[in-house]
Amino acid sequence: MPEPLFVVVGLGNPGPDYAGNRHNVGQMVLDELARRMGSSFRRHKTPTEVAEGRTSPGGPRLVLAKPRSFMNTSGGPVSAVLRFYDVAPDRLIVVHDELDIPFDVVRLKSGGGHGGHNGLRDIIKAVGTPDFTRVRVGVGRPPGRQDPADFVLHDFSSTERRALPLLVDRAADAVGSIVADGLVSAQQRFHAPE
Predict the structure, then answer these.
(1) Which CA distances in Å does 117 have to 59, 113, 152?
(2) pLDDT tens digits, one per residue of 37-82
(3) Does residue 23 have an active-site annotation?
(4) Distance in angstroms (rounded) separating the CA atoms of residues 52 and 65
(5) What DSSP string describes the chain?
(6) Hey, which CATH number is domain 5-190, 3.90.1150.10, 3.40.50.1470, 3.40.250.10, 3.30.497.10?
(7) How far apart are CA 135 and CA 99, in angstroms?
């Protein structure tokens, strides 16, 4: 019987101009996971960059995938990587920014709608189901009347940047907890009051 395999996708936009944007926090989390696994990203046959490894000795194998497309067209690359590794959507974990959660908070869920997040909308359409796990990394709401679409395409503030490594760490820990112990156990751990 083949060993369990999870595909973990970090959403964002490609290229250095977007690297520090709030919208790219999913890819920041994948960079941390790859660092922990001692792995590095390489171009893949699918339209993604991929790193493979385990977060703990004997733990499940992970394929970390960063779509090489823009956020709004993430579905094609995600669907392609699932097909390539023959992984069903119930073993897909998508790490993404979430406006409806305060900055510095991580929330975990399976299924549900896209909540206006165009990356999620495109993935749901491409894989044919909303039933995959999401690691929602809170970036908070924009101040005043700033357009949310504009807000997520800006870098984190200097205050946020100081706390960002801890937030990225916590989200990476959450992915590790989901693959090791299951979603419910991870939710109990990460949704508990601090």
Answers:
(1) 31, 9, 11
(2) 999 999 999 999 999 999 888 888 999 999 999 999 999 999 999 9
(3) yes
(4) 9
(5) -PPPEEEEEE----STTTTTBGGGHHHHHHHHHHHHHT---EE-SSSEEEEEE-SSTTSPEEEEEEESS-GGG-HHHHHHHHHHHT--GGGEEEEEEETTS-TT-EEEEES---TT-HHHHHHHHHHT-S-SEEEEEE--PPSTT--HHHHHTSBPPHHHHHHHHHHHHHHHHHHHHHHHH-HHHHHHHHSS--
(6) 3.40.50.1470
(7) 13
Average pLDDT value for the chain: 94
Confidence band of 136 (pLDDT split at 50, 70, 90): very high
How far is residue 9's CA from residue 7's CA, in Å, rounded to a whole number? 6
List Cα–Cα distances, 67 to 26, 101, 134, 163, 189, in angstroms. 11, 24, 16, 26, 29
Q: What is the pLDDT of residues 103-126, one digit of tens each?
A: 999 999 999 999 889 999 999 999
What are 28's two structure tokens? 């920041």
Q: What is the pTM of this model?
A: 0.96
